[in-house]
Design goal:
The chain has 689 residues and is an all-alpha fold. It has 35 helices and 4 strands. It has helices at 3-6, 24-32, 45-49, 56-64, 68-73, 75-88, 94-114, 120-127, 133-149, 154-168, 180-185, 189-197, 199-217, 227-233, 238-266, 269-278, 283-290, 296-308, 313-317, 348-351, 367-378, 385-402, 405-411, 443-457, 465-485, 493-509, 511-515, 520-541, 545-557, 559-573, 580-589, 591-610, 618-626, 653-670, 678-688, and strands spanning 320-321, 364-365, 417-418, 441-442. It has a two-stranded antiparallel sheet with strand order 1-2. The protein is elongated and about 115 Å long. The relative contact order is 0.07. Residues 435-671 form the Armadillo-like helical domain. It is found in: Membrane.
């Protein structure tokens, strides 16, 4: 029996010599795939077709079995099927609407699957007929808009969104999906916003609506004016923005909760006993398995909202009690068995209200905290391209946030303190920090902690240079804001200085290997200039004069690394080669660091000799530093508090094209109309009818 026959809904064999009977709907499909008009001998053909349960597998398989030429032979019938599907969407008989939506999805998928190399115009011609495409697609989009905005069945709304997601993701490259031109012309943007602003519809359809919006925003975004980009950038309706933030926040929270549960499960019982016996040698392997697929679709939605709409920044800061979301939804959620961790749409019970019960014992949270926790998970393991891209997107979002004045003001607000339990990568040389010990601080401290954590934990042979560059730039932007506003942040700056110095040490130790792949001088320059920021302007934003003294102490204590860096960049800059100019910039940037080392080192040695001390304590060194500031001469360096603002085009365009392609493939794989059980739908509407 052929694969197509298996999908044909064969009923039974009457005898060994007779062929099995087919379902009536399959026989009707076969009539459509014949050359003659199926309604020629049966005027009620289309009415009858949409009253029958759709056989999705057979219809898609039949379409996929035909090449372009074969489809063109029956083009009129395919066009007629499409036309009658659209007409059926306006029917009062709900079963017809359900069957029409499912048939449309099968049409979109089936025709595209077989004709991947065909032009977009050919696909439109095969499906709709090019001469009638504008009218048919206008009717389709208006019907979908009415169904999404109307007060009808929630199941129908879910089905409409599934159809739209199916339509958007039928091609690997979303920008090559020419049929989306009609989705641009006949916008459903307002329908998406209505779903997000309404409590009940957001709970059931918010996830699909947000993912759909994120994908539509990325259609030919660099080649033409995309109306979804324009409209998203000017949304200022508070309930809508709050709704979008709630959907994103709940999806990230659910991922965080699932990860934490899995982590506790892996570290409990016998495993925990074993690791306590033999040390932490197995912890890294165990946690690596926890780094399951991240939710890039919802992360892309967050990025587009933050990047395009300044009003959305206020949503990041809105506080609410922190609640533990159950990992198993209370109401059944339609997902496929292969849905990755964190990509499951959320149940209505989790999302149907932004008004959460107040409890004085609950920790306060917000979307930004949830995002920081999420970032601390996905940034732990960047060993494969997928996870690397997720970490990159997190850092790009943080870049956009740290460039926004309102966000910076909120991050540094000393009256808004939060306890943020970031996930830390298990490492042999340090104990896992107890969550209860995390102090309540301004949110900027959590951002800096996240950056320091990344710097410390990713010094490896397969060096993620791009992520390090972004990480150091985020730190730089925060310090620029502190310098500009003279904010004296009470933060453990020594941890940051130590991390940066160790990063320089790593670059030096692996110079040959790294230079074969990366311009390490650019990163070294950024790091050295961070120190120059502290040296030149530290007295305006470091919390106390002692902090400034400790900065000098660290520079002097680790002088060997700065000396070695100077020798290396001097060597490279005095030889002809591709790195001559970038190395020369680092040489010049080290002038004040070297002045500090050359000024204080002789003073410290002299103090030790006079007092007959072989090894000075930290307090003794600090005493020498404090008493010799007056004779230190430093050069004023220009432009230390300047930075290039983030711009997606052209630098990030290639990254986002590939990211959207990956998300589109994943959404296509997981969007199956079978997830909305046909039997349940038909049962629901049979009762209504």
């Amino acid at each position: 029996m052929s694969q197509l026959e298996k999908k044909a809904g064969l009923l039974r064999r009457t005898s060994s010599s007779k062929k099995p009977l087919k379902e009536k709907v399959v026989l009707m499909y076969d009539e459509i795939f014949a050359k003659e008009d199926p309604a020629k001998n049966n005027s009620r053909f289309w009415d009858e077709l949409f009253l029958m349960k759709v056989n999705l597998e057979y219809l898609e398989a039949k379409l996929e079995s035909l090449d372009g030429d074969e489809v063109m032979k029956i083009k009129d019938n395919i066009n007629s099927l499409f036309h009658h599907c659209v007409q059926a969407l306006a029917e009062e008989h709900q079963i017809k609407v359900v069957n029409a939506l499912q048939t449309l999805c099968a049409l979109f998928r089936g025709v595209h699957q077989k004709n991947k190399s065909a032009s977009g115009f050919d696909i439109i011609n095969m499906l709709v007929g090019f001469d009638k495409a504008e009218l048919r697609m206008k009717d389709l989009m208006e019907s979908l808009d009415s169904l999404l905005c109307g007060e009808g069945s929630e199941s129908l709304k879910a089905l409409c969104l599934k159809l739209l997601l199916c339509l958007v993701t039928v091609t690997d490259n979303i920008s090559q999906n020419t049929i989306l031109e009609y989705v641009m012309i006949n916008s459903i943007f307002e329908a998406i916003l209505q779903i997000l602003s309404d409590v009940s519809t957001r709970g059931q359809h918010g996830y699909d609506a947000v993912v759909l919006l994120a994908l539509l925003v990325n259609y030919r975004k660099y080649e033409s004016v995309n109306p979804y980009i324009v409209k998203l950038s000017i949304v200022d309706d508070e309930p809508t923005l709050d709704g979008m933030g709630l959907v994103v926040g709940q999806a990230l929270t659910q991922y965080n909760r699932q990860y934490k549960d899995k982590e506790e499960e892996n570290h409990g019982g016998f495993f925990s006993t074993l690791t306590s016996m033999v040390g932490s040698m197995f912890i890294a392997d165990a946690d690596e398995k926890l780094s399951v697929q991240t939710n890039e679709a919802i992360l892309l939605a967050l990025y587009e909202a933050v990047h395009l709409n300044r009003n959305f920044i206020t949503v990041l800061a809105q506080s609410h009690p922190e609640i533990d979301i159950p990992t198993t939804p209370i109401t059944p959620v339609p997902t496929t068995p292969t849905t990755p961790l964190g990509t499951t749409p959320l149940s209505m019970d989790m999302m149907n209200s932004s008004e959460l019960p107040l409890d004085p014992n609950l920790q306060t949270s917000n979307l930004l905290i949830t995002f920081l926790k999420y970032s601390s998970i996905v940034m732990q393991d960047t060993k494969d391209e997928h996870r690397l891209n997720s970490a990159r997107l997190c850092l790009i979002i943080l870049t956009c946030i740290t460039e926004d004045q309102y966000a910076d003001a909120f991050l540094h607000d000393d009256n808004m303190n939060f306890r943020v339990n970031l996930h830390r990568m298990p490492m042999r040389h340090r104990k896992k920090a107890a969550e209860k010990n995390v102090p309540s601080r301004p949110l900027v401290c959590a951002v800096l902690d996240l950056m320091v954590e990344f710097i410390v934990t990713h010094m490896m042979k397969d060096f993620p240079m791009d992520l390090y560059m972004r990480c150091v730039q985020v730190i730089h932007k925060l310090i620029c804001y502190q310098k500009k506003c003279r904010i004296r942040l009470h933060y453990t700056w020594r941890e940051l200085w130590s991390a940066l110095i160790n990063l320089l040490k790593f670059l030096l130790s692996n110079e040959t290997v790294l230079l074969a792949k990366h311009n390490i001088f650019h990163l070294a320059l950024l790091v050295v200039n961070l120190f120059n920021m502290f040296i030149t302007y530290g007295d305006t934003f470091l919390p106390t004069s002692n902090s400034y003294d400790e900065l000098y102490y660290e520079i002097v204590r680790m002088h060997q690394i700065f000396d070695n860096l100077y020798c290396m960049v001097l060597r490279v800059s005095t030889n002809a080669g591709q790195w001559k100019e970038p190395a020369s910039k680092v040489t010049h940037s080290l002038v004040n660091v070297r002045a500090i080392i050359n000024h204080f080192n002789p003073k410290i040695e002299s103090y030790a000799a006079v007092n007959h001390i072989s090894q000075l304590s930290e307090d003794q060194v600090l005493e020498v530093v404090r008493s010799n500031y007056d004779t230190l001469t430093l050069k004023l360096q220009d432009g230390l508090d300047q930075f290039e603002r983030y711009s997606e085009q052209p630098k990030e365009a290639a990254f986002f094209k590939e990211l959207v392609r990956s998300i589109s493939l994943n959404v296509r794989k997981n969007v199956s109309l079978n997830t909305l059980s046909q039997d349940l739908l038909l049962k629901e509407f049979s009762t209504i009818s």
